[in-house]
Each structure stands twice: as structure tokens, then as C-alpha cells.
Design goal:
Layout: H1 4-19, H2 26-33, H3 37-44, H4 47-67, H5 75-92, H6 94-101, H7 107-110, H8 116-119, H9 130-144, H10 153-172, H11 181-197, H12 202-228
Helix pairs in contact: 1-2, 1-4, 2-3, 3-4, 4-5, 4-9, 5-6, 5-9, 5-10, 5-12, 9-10, 10-11, 11-12
Length: 229
């Protein structure tokens, strides 16, 4: 049986994804969990504590999605694969993505955001910055392999994050259709151009992109089989 704190957090995540950040209230989360509002105060000290726990769950899952991408001997292909995982998570979990990186994030969560251009991290919470650390490591590997010019790793990671985030937000809002065009016609070519602009060879980038796509296609049957068992 699921322990009560975990059940309340899971209920909060479900409510978040179904109804948005504004729906996260003690009474509504308790009702979703099938308990009383007292559980929110008993286990979390109130809504601030519960919001923190929900955010921690969301950030942890997002970081896991990025860090679960296997590393190969082609860091640019791995970067594309990580970007695809980022894109998929954001589109499949739009409200969770908004909680982490949107403009309507509750103040108790948003107050942990910091200026990465001066601190090398987007959050004063190390666990909430783990996904950025994964992106930064991908950038470091591309630089170490000589694929892109050496530069400040955190700042370059911030630039690439901006590319992904902007495309994801516009696609979520419906500007790029619902047929994968946001990835194939906007984000993918934009990342290719960005990497070439940072010093990589266009033919090499395209080979890396094809390798990432082939690896993803090969993984899909096993993923589908796992879901069916």
C-alpha cells in the first residue's frame, strides 16, 4: 500500500497535469488523494511544503529522463537524443514543465531560481538543477571532442536550453501543429544550425543526427514491448 505522503504527492502531480498549477490547493489535493486536508498539514506542514514535495518529484523525474539517455562515442548524437527526451517530456507533461520553467510557477518554487550567467546554475537547489547539470555535461563532452568551440560550459548550456525551451513553449501553444512538425521543421534544424555556428561541421552534425534517430527507432520496439507486458 502506498504511504500517505507519497499518495498525496502523486495526487498533487495528477491534479497539476489535469488542471494546472492554479488547482494546487490543500482541499483539492486532499480530495484527489481521498483524504482530509489535515494530511497536507500533518505530512507537509501546509501547502508550501507540499508544493516543494511536488516540485521535487517533478524535477527528479525530468532529470532522470535526461540522464537515462545512454552515452555513446558520439557526443553530438547523444546531445540530440537528450534534446529529443527533453522535447518529449515537455509535450507529454506540459503542466509539469510549466511548474518547473513557466512564468506562473508558485513563488515558493520560483524563489529558488537564480541567474545562471553569474552562478553557473539555474537554481540554488542542487536537486532541482540536476537536469541542467546533465545538459552542461553534454556540452562539456561536445567541447572535449572538438565538435564545438571551447567556451563557458554553463553559458553554452544556457543557450542550448533557450533553443529547446523556446521551441517547446511555442509548440505547446499550438503554433507548430500536432504532427511532429515542431521537431522536424523547427527545433531539429535550429539545433543543427546552432551547432554548426558553434564550430561543428554540418555533414558531421547531420551524421550525428541520423545516428540519434536510428538509435531511437531501434529502441522503440523494445519500449513498446515493455509497456505491453
Amino acid at each position: 500500500m502506498t504511504a500517505m505522503p507519497e499518495a498525496v504527492i502523486a495526487a498533487g502531480v495528477r491534479l497539476l497535469e489535469r488542471d494546472g498549477v492554479a488547482a494546487l490547493r490543500a482541499r483539492t489535493v486532499a480530495a484527489e488523494a481521498g483524504t482530509s486536508t489535515m494530511a497536507v498539514y500533518t505530512h507537509f506542514g501546509g501547502m508550501t511544503g507540499l508544493l516543494d514535495a511536488i516540485a521535487r518529484e517533478v524535477f527528479d523525474r525530468f532529470a532522470a529522463v535526461l540522464t537515462e539517455v545512454p552515452q555513446t562515442d558520439d557526443p553530438v548524437a547523444d546531445f540530440f537524443a537528450m534534446g529529443r527526451a527533453y522535447h518529449r517530456f515537455a509535450l507529454e507533461n506540459p503542466q509539469r514543465y510549466q511548474l518547473m520553467f513557466g512564468t506562473s510557477t508558485p513563488s515558493s518554487i520560483a524563489r529558488h531560481r537564480v541567474d545562471l550567467t553569474s552562478t553557473d546554475t539555474p537554481s540554488d537547489r542542487a536537486d532541482w538543477a540536476a537536469s541542467f547539470d546533465a545538459l552542461r555535461e553534454a556540452v562539456r563532452r561536445m567541447m572535449a571532442a572538438g565538435r564545438i568551440r571551447p567556451d563557458d560550459e554553463a553559458v553554452v548550456a544556457g543557450r542550448m536550453w533557450s533553443v529547446n525551451h523556446g521551441a517547446v513553449m511555442l509548440e505547446t501553444a499550438g503554433f507548430f501543429g500536432r504532427e511532429g512538425h515542431g521537431l522536424s521543421q523547427i527545433l531539429g534544424p535550429l539545433v543543427v544550425d546552432a551547432l554548426v555556428g558553434m564550430g561543428d561541421d554540418r555533414d558531421a552534425v547531420m551524421r550525428s543526427l541520423r545516428a540519434a534517430l536510428a538509435s531511437e527507432a531501434a529502441d522503440q520496439p523494445s519500449a513498446a514491448s515493455s509497456r505491453s507486458t
